[in-house]
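User: Before I run my own analysis I want an independent prediction to cross-check against. Here's the chain; please return only the structure tokens and, at the end, one sentence I can use as a sanity check.
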Amino acid sequence: MSASVLRSDLLKIIGENPGGHQDAKVRESFAAKLQEYSKADGADTSDVIFAIGKAVFGVELDLPSPAKKAKTNGDAAKPAADLPIVDFDYMKQFMKEVFLSYGVSPERAETCSDVLIEADKRGIDSHGLGRLKPIYCDRMDDGILYPDKPIDIVKESDTTALVDGNLGLGLYIGPHCMQMAIDKAKKFGVGFVACRNSTHYGIAGYYATMATDQGCIGLTGTNARPSIAPTFGVEPMLGTNPLTWGIPTSDPYPFVIDCATSVNQRGKIEKYSRDGVDTPRGAVIDDQGVERTDTDGILKDMVLGKCALTPLGGAGDKMGGYKGYGWATTVELLCTAIQSGPWGEDICGLDRATGKPKPMPLGHFFLAIDISKICPVDTFKNNAGEFLQALRDSRKAPNGPGRIWTAGEPENDARTERFGQGGMKVNVPLQKNMQTLRDNRPGLKEKYEKLPFE
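Assistant: Structure tokens:
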């Protein structure tokens, strides 16, 4: 019997027996059919049907590891060694010109492009050039994000402020708010700024580093469209909600922990799609409780609300998933409770009834603590650096890479490597995005008649 027929039979068993996993005869029938399917010519061992068998029917088979998938659309999966390298200054100027073409003011366009290029310099490819078209340009095209809106102060004290971004670009709203917090900290020791009606603000680590560069401890967080399911849930309720700290040290780079409160985040899954690889198991759960790995299917189902990311620690509580769930909730509260801001479906970005895009009014918060008000900055940096070096010098795992990193170090390594190679590698999908923007935005065709990879 062919693989396609066997798969249809398996789906029929699932469809006709919604409670079949509780019936021994149905489980036996499913197990036998799944075993037969696994041995059939043309069966895909990465098929989600095997995950359903394991998670729902308790059938676990010894399957060969599937080979990595490669995109078939031309040379989208070209080896990294063969990709063109584009100078950072060139790329930043290109992004600035794109923002200017939308009517962003020159000063703000400079800031926006700086936030994005910093992500690429740090090796955070999911949040640099890769975000320019799909997150910022496409949303401005859809009219759900505005290129140049005022930033209003709603309420302010010596040490705090609440501001309204009026759905402008989070890439200029975020730096404005963090600088407000730093300025307050320099005067009064501590500064805290909450923001409402903002939009995607890029890498959170950018703001933490703004603080460390000015002798402060920095903290920032943002909510996002619902992606994470609560522990023991399957419905996307929380954003990937980074909780990001920056701490100055005596190292050539600050300690910056910039990561989502989920095992993975949507931008990384989008990168998996561009690279043509599966999503690691345990990062995504669907509405049937199945852990998914099919990257393109995940991206489609996330839009439909049929898939959710798992919090740090993964699904359930065996690996401490409730901890990531708790931190994601903390960020959500600090991004909505002060701001009286929306959450969940109200910031999903899609009108479920019509399928049309809708605005995503996000909340952020920014905290700066001026170290000099408490102790000498150099003393603080030396103390921090000594401890971090002790971590790096501690005993290494015999089967590990032979090195221990501290937060901020991998990004510094990436910066060193990328400046050493003369810039950033640009894969084919991002080349096409640049060409599309060049060919369709006013004034860009004349300035960029030929891009570096053409």
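Sanity check: Residues 65-75 have pLDDT under 50 and may be disordered.
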